[in-house]
Amino acid sequence: MHDTSSPDTKPAWVCARCGEALTLGKIEIAYLGSAFPVDLWHCKQCGLVLVPEDLALGRMLEVEKMLEDK
Ligand SMILES: [Zn+2]
């Protein structure tokens, strides 16, 4: 098991597709027909984007609420 709670400057994730270290940065995600800039781990090599489960389950709901407010 890896301990992910300790701060670390090394990349926490490695691309599952090509093995490149993932980079944390702004990624535009498409949701409900709109694009939102979100800080996500992504692979510069092949463009794979890692979507953490908490983002998929939690933040997406927040995004949905934001849309409803408009
Ligand atoms: Zn990759």
Structure characteristics:
single chain; 70 residues; alpha+beta; Ubiquitin-like (UB roll); 1 helix; elongated; binds zinc ion
Short note summarizing the structure:
By secondary structure, the protein is α+β, with helices and mostly antiparallel strands.
What can you tell me about this protein's structure?
24% of the residues lie in helices and 29% in strands. Strand 1 and strand 2 form a beta hairpin. It has a three-stranded antiparallel β-sheet with strand order 1-2-3, with no helix packed on it. The mean pLDDT is 77. The N and C termini lie far apart (43 Å). The protein has a single domain, classed as Ubiquitin-like (UB roll), CATH 3.10.20. The longest helix has 17 residues. The chain has 70 residues and is an alpha+beta fold. The protein binds zinc ion (ZN). Zinc ion (ZN) binds next to loops.
Main beta sheet: strand number and arrangement? Answer: 3 strands, antiparallel
Secondary-structure-derived class: alpha+beta
State the name of the first-level CATH class.
Answer: Alpha Beta
Summed up, the domain count is: 1
Strand content: 25-35%
Per CATH, which architecture? Answer: Roll
